[in-house]
């Protein structure tokens, strides 16, 4: 039984992410956001469901497609917007941009634009957590494509060998840019992960934040208790093009129908009542963040030379 | 004379490679999709088959090794990376295997693999999508590295390297040039090894500018501007960083006494350093002033536009450096152009 | 039923390899072989059994530990010895040394001293064989340790995805230098390989060249027919130290008993009659090869600058 | 004054790192075995536990990423590679992640990882076990690279970098020096940032020699020899290739007018190039003769001893180059020493 409060809470978070990204789409033609954006629209429930099971002390590592995770983990919206606008009050002083968000105060540890690069970092952080008795989870998000990189194999092996408290979350949207799974992978992601002796779970309903929260909370509890690695695959669907604000059904690599089917299951698409109820307050917050961003100064020479070593 | 964009020149070169040699195979993430690697492979999978224009999984080291192995067994692979930064995942195969396979086994094997990697600024690419690793590759014997600065250069050097050369090659293509149009004169196509040679783009007597890739265009623009104020720049397009024509540079410096090196990467341990070495080993006495080097600021690449504009060279800073170096012209006005990216996003040429 | 001829033939090959390497041990203190040697003593049956199923047109890629494979594949002994002695008549004109042998005339395609680096090369060669209709097998030998490298995962995936006629042979001697399998791997090598949908086989009796030949011949025939990848794991035992001419039981990472058990099963150790019968002729060949090597000139400036590009 | 070998200095530094900081962890293939990474970690696993002195699987990229992640979360990893060539498998984590993590995220994180990698000749190592990638690393902002040339240098720089510095470091240790003994004066230990500085090993007035790693020792041997014949060499140990003291080099060249750079890697795009750049940008007029550079021949490394002896610099060629450069001493006899490896395998010091 889901409490209505939980549904509302997670819905609100997911909706906020969607509206933020829709506002980014809306503003993109102004050229004020001068950084490529990889939108999570359609995939918000994954971020929201997972982060609800984590505390600020738990660490999350993610990818270039991480507005959703940054926000769900509790990252400050103003700081994110300023980062996208390339301003000095951005969460990384404008040096990161959309592909490199971080919010250490809530355990959002950074995102890499080189596919699969953060997977081993999360295992390393889990090793540190274990050795330093931090009682802390380390979670890493990556796409289905990332599992093809060699470092994924190296990391699963190490994490299983040392029994590290790390949770691998594969956000499977079935595409790497425009390439389908079947053209890239000879293995089943889940079975392959099992071959390392890692416990696994697959969640098919990647639009259902309640389900994801429920399942992931159990997994998080298990890992907190056992200290052992876990692997979670969550099926999901990216509504927009791989990078950029548009749609790309013209590309011919997938059909609008396939995406529409997913939309028909997605609460943020179907529960219009909730959307109407919650949107106004969220929109205010978003507009305020844009104002914040636009009022923030551009970084200059001082920032340029800072933080190299 | 035709007008051909950098992108079209690349696409044409890819198509001729497939057409001229049944054993040529193109590999690349998205090589067969509707965007076709920034348009350079569009339609080729349809025409030549998906086995010859292959999409690949995400596995740079593995794919490079597969290309090396295929090359050892009769295939001529072209392997494309949409960002040179991703090639760092494949450096073991490139540096330890491809560059050494011929030597290590006493000449038994050739490894004809041609790697295309896109470098450089477009906008907001950040620290991991903007690097220009020519210096890294050029330090290792066994590789050829080219940095074409226009369509003609692509057509001639790709033609030579894909048809006649049989060792590993890395071509670094600058993203900001893809949309630019260039004059191409097919009667003047350089053939054979000449297609790799450094060459004089513009003769001049006051300052020698040695430039790579898009910095050649910047140098040309600066030279045009300064010509009106009586500063006469000689510009050398280095073209290949592994096959540098020492005498061309030395002779030019002998004439001008002044050297500026403009490269797309960091200055330290970069092309600037190598050119200084060539001068110092051969003819330091020709220098009548300290050498000036232009490149990326010594930090990782920031994302914000305001920082990018400080990070990358621009016409304003280039021109003022040339003026200083030339020692003349205190009264020359400096143009107000702080962003190279802005220019190349609007200007389409022909250059 | 094994024909006596086959037994003799393979025994002779295996014995030759053993005697060659024992002669290397014997000569090593003279410092004339100025290159690190990774000896195959104890593992010869693997090389002999596998290569008997291959023709000169089939390609084999291997590692720094490859005297055995070079010879079993048909590589010239004189040229190998001269290579170890750093002479101009070496199979690589002295530029390769013990770790980098090649004999293209018999399909011995080269060996890498960077663990796992040849695995992807073999898959690439198999791709070429397939596209160019070469009717040729491509086989790669690597150690158990090599399976830990990321490129191994990348290559198995690609080979299975494209159904390439490549045979992966893991020579499992249970150690990488001094580290045991259990301290390095969380997976079973065979099950892990199966997760890519690759057909697999394990051969426990890595000392039994007849058995290996029998099994591997079947596999080679299968791959010739189906054109699909195959994975073979062969258990074996390295008698000597990881690199160098000595023994290293003093190192404490394994016991002499464990190795002695293996020796008690190894025909080259047990069938002393055959050893006595075959040794004299082989020894003549070996001594001739050393004479050949010692009479060959040292390479000089010309060789130094040749073959860079 | 004590006599301490390079190996002992390394082992001592490893042990102090473990003793001084509970969060220091050593990772390396074989770090806990009976050979203990050429003796530099022997006994440490027994004393500090296998979780602090960890053997690792074969997975250079993965382990480096694990070290980076551990460093982000409170650990100070030391990651050891017995050959620098294997580090090419980890360059994505080093160049794209470790070197940029601090900058890319606006200073939120430090990545205190210390990578030790062994370079250089011993014998018969061949093309894939002999490379010296200081130039590669030094081109990328965000990294510190050191090349200690003696025991004191190890003790002082490791002490600073492992205790006080919090960014990524690469230390390239030369295999041929491991068995050498050096005088160490604990009262003269340089502390803080000074421990990275380039310094003058020997003052002289005729020729400036800038050297790295074992080439410093070679330079000292050459200088001693030549001193008897009246050629007075000034030797600068560069020590760090990322923290080069420009003024030290420039002042020295001002005095001598003559520069020779001796490095352990290839000359093109290497340390030699960078030193020339520094001179060219600052004071080319001080050079009274062309610069001479000494390094590996521009080919992959061959295996045969006869080829190695031609491939690597030796005392004979070094001395004759210095004599030529100095312009004096046509009558100085050249010593007959063609193999550096032979010398260091016999000679144990103290140096
Ligand atoms: C190592 C590397 N190779 C290639 C790319 C180019 N690229 C960026 S995203 C992407 C697809 C990744 O797919 P997936 O892991 O499924 O994540 P998704 O984008 O679907 O969220 C590719 C190929 C890259 N960034 N890094
Ligand atoms: C990439 C790489 N990492 C480390 C090494 C050092 N090294 C050489 S052999 C070896 C062990 C390999 O073990 P395995 O693959 O089982 O082969 P074996 O030596 O047992 O035949 C190691 C770690 C190397 N050569 N290459
Ligand atoms: Mg995906
Ligand atoms: Mg083994």
TrEMBL record, chains A, C:
Pfam family, one: E1_dh
Record-annotated Dehydrogenase E1 component domain positions: 17-269
GO molecular function annotation: pyruvate dehydrogenase (acetyl-transferring) activity
Superkingdom of origin: Bacteria
Cofactors named for this entry: thiamine diphosphate
Keywords attached to this entry: Oxidoreductase, Thiamine pyrophosphate
Gene Ontology biological process terms in this record: pyruvate decarboxylation to acetyl-CoA
PANTHER family the UniProt entry points to: PYRUVATE DEHYDROGENASE E1 COMPONENT SUBUNIT ALPHA (PTHR11516:SF60), PYRUVATE DEHYDROGENASE E1 COMPONENT, ALPHA SUBUNIT BACTERIAL AND ORGANELLAR (PTHR11516)
The protein's name: Dehydrogenase E1 component domain-containing protein
Source species: Catenovulum maritimum
TrEMBL record, chains B, D:
Residue ranges of domain Transketolase-like pyrimidine-binding in the record: 4-180
Keyword Oxidoreductase included in the entry's annotation: yes
Keywords: Oxidoreductase, Thiamine pyrophosphate
GO molecular function: oxidoreductase activity
Matching SMART domains: Transket_pyr
Superkingdom, taxonomy of origin: Bacteria
Cofactor(s) this protein requires: thiamine diphosphate
InterPro entries the UniProt entry points to: THDP-binding, Transketo_C/PFOR_II, Transketolase-like_Pyr-bd, Transketolase_C
Keyword Oxidoreductase (UniProt): yes
Gene3D superfamilies with a match to the protein in the record: 3.40.50.920, 3.40.50.970
A Pfam family of this chain: Transket_pyr
PANTHER family associated with the record: PYRUVATE DEHYDROGENASE E1 COMPONENT BETA SUBUNIT, PYRUVATE DEHYDROGENASE E1 COMPONENT SUBUNIT BETA
Official protein name in the record: Transketolase-like pyrimidine-binding domain-containing protein
Source organism phylogeny: Bacteria, Pseudomonadati, Pseudomonadota, Gammaproteobacteria, Alteromonadales
